Amino acid sequence: METASKNIVLNVNGEFIADPFAPSISAFDRSYLYGDSLYEVVRTYGGRFLYLEEHLVRLAKSADLCKMKLSKPLSFYAQECEKSLNAFNTLNAPKLTEAYCRLVISRGTGKIGFGTENILSGPTFAVIVQPLNPPTPEQWEAGYRYGVVDRWRNEKRALDPAAKTGNYLNSLLAYLEATNDGYQDALLCDSAGFLTEGTTFNLFYVKRDIIVTPPFSSGILDGITRRTVIQIARRMGLEVREVPFPKERLYDAAEIFMTSTIKEVAPVVEIDGRKIANGKPGKITRRLKNAFTEYSLARSEKEKKS
Ligand code: PDD
Question: How far is the CA of 120 from the centre of ligand 1 (A)?
Fold first, then answer.
């Protein structure tokens, strides 16, 4: 079995590629020509995938929204992810390195032209596994500084944010704009001026112990972490509201936090250059981060035993 250098494992259409940065997908692939692809990012806990099934179900939903027919069942993609993770774990043994895994599926490779009659292959896929790079404890304590950019999040009637597609140019530009202005990442509003989410993460604020997050109707990704955190918070007896709100609401929030597979639950301490509350991670944010990690580790242990 060939595995990649630099701790990266790349599996393209079922084959391991020795040099991950050498060309391995055709320039005529629709992912390259049109961003006509889907993707998911999953991570490991204790060297095993967690929430993989939820991510694959979301992938199927994205495929539906994009009218993309996956030629293989979801279990096939799960196996390819597992196969790639095994290669990664072998590469890193005996040290346990948590993994970041990105599964990308494109509509296929073929002649230039939107029509699917131009496609000469079935859907192509790639699995990338590399070391996970979560926030360090110092980065977490320092919190994140985000800017609300002028650029809108894609409208639901344009490219529905509920679909996790390989077409991230709008979010990427928002990121470049925000970082160019000295922020660490961008938050985007919809055309009505309501906040939606960040470039690659969901958004929450806390005021008077009530947790608020934009609803699906604002045009957001149904984040697996968002969903889990909402459940955990409600089980802890906290009130969570999914309602639209403008950016000004963030400025006088007691706490702000973001959620994503990579960062789990992380504090946001500054918005548009304004300090949020005392500029430190909030109490509820910390409780939810601990509860989320605890829940994930416990679920991982349980799945290991079964
Ligand atoms: N991003 N919103 C957007 C636009 C995202 O791209 C993501 C995920 C999320 C959070 O979803 P989840 O909790 O399921 O990871 C929200 C991944 C991590 C990425 O693109 O790297």
Answer: 31
